[in-house]
Protein 1
Amino acid sequence: MTAIMKRTIPVIIFALLLSSCASITRNMQRGNYDRVIQKTTKRLIRKPKAKDAEAMNRAYKLANERDLERITFLEKEDNPAYYDELFARYATLKERQSRVRTVTPITIEGMTYSYQYVDYDARIIESKQKAARELYRSGKELVNNSRSKLDFREAHFQLVRANEYGGHLFPDIEDLIHEARMMGISRVIVVPENRDPNIGIPQIDLEYLISFDTRRLDANEWTEFHFKHMGGNVNYDYEMFVRVLSIEVSDNIEKVTREEFTRKSTTEFDYALDVNGNVMKDTAGNDIKIYKDVSATLIKTEKQKTCTIRGEVETISISGEPRGALAKVPFAASSKFENISYELIGNPEAVYSDVINLTKKDELSFPKESVLVKQCIENARPVVRDIVMDSGNRYVN
């Protein structure tokens, strides 16, 4: 360990200790007593210190005092709307007591911290059952009298809580929860349309445009997307029209260019002859060869064809307020066919090996228009999915 590290580590530890102490002080000042208790009890388990025990003690007494004062008021008020809070306060008192009992009684520097055990169970059971009955009564009333989806959602929330607290008390609660759930859901029917009069799109391709993973649309538990009419008694609250407004497919674009190459051959040659027609020799006695120039033409063919799809997603409220068109969000996507091929005419010795490698790429035929349209729809799917998700979050209530 270097000298710098030896000096740095104690500084870091001291800074962390200061930060921890400051955190406890801030939480105490803000009334976050349970947060203080949580921190100090953990530290007391690891290494008992007087300042942590004092902070825990003060936070515990202040937190209990605050909850007991509120409980006294709630019990005097005896307002059914507060039964749930009354149960929560008693449950908090019990949980807090259990936490401090993990480290108490404890004696540090001559000071003993110990608290009298209080049995809260009877009060918890009583307040829990009262809360359950009130939540059930209120939730059932909302189910029977509401016409608003927001009211049905509130009813569902209350009935679920009532079931958690004491479902055995209410034989019909499961049916009520299901009814509140069904009545609180906003249902959206997503309908694909082709508005381009020039290009027909098979229905299967239109449906493919909206055939994305519906699990990604379930972020809002109260919105249900359908991609086919369910029929029967299903009533839809919103329509989302995924409209293809135009599809533009370009002509076949083909460009041909030529490049000439000339090099000395390594295999084709003539012998050098003297004036008498005899083969000339070099100083080593070897025949003198004159290598020929060879040439070749590289023909490059570039093919290109594109498809562009443009459309919109329109959200329409059928039964909610306000009714009518809520928003139109445009979308666009494209697909492209590109092919570059090479053909070498002439002597291959005239070009380098990298040029030869270019000729290994096959020339492809132009795709049919329908193939490009399918690819374009494939590329548009994630764009449409994101718009449907965003529109559901923005406009569906």
Note: The longest strand covers residues 289-317.
Protein 2
Amino acid sequence: METTEIALMAVNALEDKKAEDIRIIDISQISTIADYFIIADGSNKSQIQAMADNVSEVLGRSGITVKQIEGYQNANWILMDFQDIIIHIFDRENRLFYDLERIWRDGILIEKEALVK
């Protein structure tokens, strides 16, 4: 399965749980850690955990397993490492504080439609 397909599935899984302000950053030209960062936020701990659970479930059904998950218990910033795709799910306060979009501004911000072949 191609990385773009996996990223699209992850974005759809986040949208299914009402993720807000989803950003997809192509970092393939500036980093070797992954091809895409997907960043989203939720309004409370339960929603943020549900978003992470749904991504794991949807990707898992396609045989894509998460390498590592950090921050699930506190749910103010959950990091999900799927090797070529890294998903960051924040609460609003921590998203503003860490501002990954600014840190990774050399990456290319892409629209969901760009993932569809």
Note: Residues 3-115 form a domain with the Beta Polymerase; domain 2 fold (CATH 3.30.460.10).
Protein 3
Amino acid sequence: MTEAPCVEIGLGRLRGRASGGTRRFLGIPFAAPPVGPLRFAPPAPPLPWSGLREADRFGPAPIQRIDDLSLELGLLVAHPQSEDCLHLNVFAPDAEPSQGLRPVMVWLHGGAFASGTAAGPVYDPSRLAREGDIVVVTLNYRVGALGFLGVGSPNVGLQDQMAALRFVRDEIAAFGGDPGNVTVFGESAGAGSIVALLATPGARGLFRRAIVQSAAPDGMLSREEADLRVGIFCKAAGDPGLDLDGLRRLAPEEILKAQVLCQEPGPRRIGMFFAPVVDGELLPERPLDAIARGCARDVELIIGTTAHEMQLYHLSDLFPQVPMEHIPAALAPGLPGPRDRAIAAAKELMRFYEGPELADENRYFAAVTDANLFVPAARLAAQQSRHQSATFMYRFDWTSPMRDGRLGACHALDIPFALGAVDRVPAFAGAGDDALAVSRAMRAAWVAFARTGSPACAAVGEWPAYEPEGRQTMLIDRICRTVRDPDGEKRRAWALARLEGEA
């Protein structure tokens, strides 16, 4: 039987578990429980402990609603929930490093800023750590109202992530990780968090590299939008006049009930009720504007999307089925100018989605994918590349076998491939040698980037940097290859419709 590994950090001694060639230290507190007066407040330093703390199980998940789709895809798991959720987990190879400290990769889970937990089966990075010979950290952060309602201290969910990154800076060497070589990576809301962190002055220096998987880069709220949503939330909680003290007195069950009511009404400007707020303090300005000015010039970056992001919602009854004739009106709120101008621009854009192979719902899914994810991601890549030469873009093209392939290369499909957990969700990710080979290639590229700042490696071949002239993009599939400016005409049309210029 493998002896349980022990480490000593500044807070005290930890005993983890070793199996399958990986050491795991789970449920490590990186902040004090955010309860009572610390609800809606910045994360406070964790309390040290005496004796030996067992680190063999995940900490509680944040307070959230459990939905069947997330359970089916392995993004959530039946797991205890608590406001006392600020814990992280460290995964490292169960072998001495061949040379010095190992690179560190810190994963931020998704969940529309309203759900998620590092305990989700698909977020198991054991294979990534073991085969990549790196240290991987996963973590919980406050979600929903408790993390992203615009009251109290701004963006406490982002502040939780920063606190975890400070823990990594201060303590990861005890686990064999290099605090000077940290790559933060994440998907969906986790990736959107990274976009926000790139523009957050307080996060500067906490990571050297970033991998942004399927973010909505412009999915942030203005201060005015956030204030309106606070009012909606308080009304849902039963008292439109609730102040900060009143919100802190609500039971967690009342918070969750109001949160669910707020999420039900349907389409909003950014498709989510909770999101980071451009508050003028922690997040001083819109990230796309800050990145264009060079605020993240010191961070090497990979950014990309899946080919058919929104087709995931074939699995959801909550997503609207929009007939072709109604799609322009549905897209218009995301376009500038008077409504008539926006609808006319949306009608012009729909010429890119007229193929006979597309059902009406897929036309809508494709348009929303481009509007919210692909086009803003390409814009961010172009902006960053003007300040940082180590900027790379990809598109994930592997098709899910679920629903006879109707999902395509949908949102969240890349997660098990990046983390090495395809065998945890074979019905969604696919099984067999091809799926495993795609995962090996993606993980090899991610690890190469974490080590060197370039994702080029034997598994994917040459991967040229992204720049506004060539826009070289890696297509990740059974055969990985780079192409020049994929969907360039469509990207330019969206930029024109949004009055954004070429980038």
Note: The chain is about 30% helix and 15% strand.
